[in-house]
């Protein structure tokens, strides 16, 4: 039926993490209905055709499972980590809501208010979050990345039950899903589980108009946000322009990745002064290049994070699921550390030259009082 399944066997503890990702997110929402993918994520914890709205959560709480869900621009993921003896129950619950979700109008209206309250609390009442929301809208003026996954309140109020039903039927199907099982489970056990709970036929194939990065590691080269990096040394230590500074890479599709530099200015320093020095630094570093020792430190940091990831079954399963959803093969994920090791200083500096001439959006957030 087209569903991808990945098994990561680890028998160190008798627990299993069940991560199911649907390749649909806020970037797939119709114009004027932003936030719908996230609202549907909330509704997935409500009624199904054969169970009431509290059944799913109550069953997982009874077995002591850790569970949650998240919506991004490209994916919606659902995870549950539980003792191995309850894995069948977890799979039964998850497969049931994949096929039998019942979106009831009264439940939807209540949950919509929960989502709106979440947006007001997490974004609208936090100045930095509001600023980033504006930056995203300016940075990506055309759909689909011009809004955050939680959506705009006016759009949220436009969503109808029928919109959610159409979205669910279009994207929540085996051919658009990736299941990763991580923990105390063998390949043969996983095959039996999948045949029992996820073997329903999917007569339609979901078509998404996306162009993914073919090689994520090429854009993961610039890592200058640690306190050992040249950006931190120049802005914080040498010039004392900021209390802290970091950078972040958000990889989306082939034409919409973003590189963010965020900083809090020091007392009596204007954001304009900091901006000028950032321009000086980026242009200088594009010409002279990063130092080899800083590149090696960045590579080591990335690789050690890969090692730490194996200590958490859910993180490991989610990592594999996301990379698989990006169209990358399992071997790429398994050998990611080696790929990072193969990156040269020249590779990094070539990427820096592209960064220095890229279009950018600059936001100065000045707090009152």
TrEMBL record:
Listed Gene3D superfamilies: Metalloenzyme, LuxS/M16 peptidase-like (3.30.830.10)
Start and end residues of each Peptidase M16 N-terminal domain: 9-119
An MF annotation (GO) of this entry: metalloendopeptidase activity
An annotated GO BP: proteolysis
Limits of the Peptidase M16 C-terminal domain: 160-202
Residue intervals passing through the bilayer: none
UniProt cross-references to InterPro entries, sorted A to Z: Metalloenz_LuxS/M16, MPP/UQCRC_Complex, Pept_M16_N, Pept_M16_Zn_BS, Peptidase_M16_C
Organism domain of life: Eukaryota
Annotated function: Substrate recognition and binding subunit of the essential mitochondrial processing protease (MPP), which cleaves the mitochondrial sequence off newly imported precursors proteins.
Family according to the record: Belongs to the peptidase M16 family.
Protein name: Alpha-MPP
Species the sequence originates in: Biomphalaria glabrata
Gene: 106070081
